[in-house]
Amino acid sequence: MQDKHMLMIPGPTPVPESVLLAMAKHPIGHRSGDFSQIIGEITENLKWLHQTQNDVLMLTASGTGAMEAGIINFLSAGDRVLVGNNGKFGERWGKISRAFGLEVEEITAEWGKPLDPEAFKTKLEADTDKSIKAVIITHSETSTGVLNDLQTINSYVKAHGEALIMVDAVTSLGAVNVPMDEWGLDMVASGSQKGYMIPPGLGFVAVGSKAWKAYETATLPKFYLDLGAYKKATDKSSSPFTPPVNLMYGLQVALEMMKAEGLEAMFTRHQRLTQATRAAVKGLGLSPFAADEVASYAVTAVMPSTVEAEAIRSTMKKEFDIALAGGQDHLKGKIFRIGHLGFVSERDVLTAIAALEATLQKLGHQGATSGAGIAAASQVFKS
Q: Is the pTM of this model over 0.90?
């Protein structure tokens, strides 16, 4: 049926109707007083979302662009950095860092496993000459459904005293607590198509005072992604270059919705969706790829053993018009991923689980009692 497509992937995520309607308005001049008021309101609400009094800057870019902006604004060629790599996106930050001539040391974990905070502690404590300039962490590793222990790793960075903590919060911001000021995070990058509940196209970089001090001596070339220019403009409720006006209409409404729900309620909702999804997956005789105690609140990865992951995805799309995400790199064809991030409700999870059960039955899966997935999810939701 036309127009019944349902996104259950970790991005892009579903967009509320009120946000879509806001984006359908005629654009106005991005140098006008009216648009300046919109920028000012958005900026204040972004600070609320990041739990910070520091700068939160908007870029016309993806989350990857936001992270690259963080690297080139606060570091110089030859700088030594520690990069956590336990999935596709941790791996990507290593590649970006090398592309700009940084001296990269990776702390790795098997895909599906969390980074070991003690490995960071060991490296940082051994750095007596303070040559490590930054520690770069993917908080929620979207490729595997793992939530890394940012708080503990950050405590070791703070004990080091010199290194910046640079965080990819692309699929954690808005889903799990990331209190920038309380934890003293120096740079937090995110993207619009995740917890923000709007389409792709905007990247966000939150910058603390320690990072701004590093900006003063950073020598990597930059122009369009020069965050100093964005700060100067944002302080005047403006932008250094032409912004995506209609996306920002949508962002204005989405942030209002998030404030109305409240931070704690958002975090609790994502936690319940995660718990219900994982319980349902187990009820259907499948196994989540990551352990419960390190589960991402954005996405649940599943490695089926009795049917092919891609057969599940294609059948879900063909029969129910529900999109699930696949595996990446060596996990391609081995796992599928269920997104439950942003504008996702209990009804959405129940719908997806019911369709998943029908799909498994159609493909000959014999590992579950009929209705077990819905029963397991409902048990979580009624508590």
A: yes
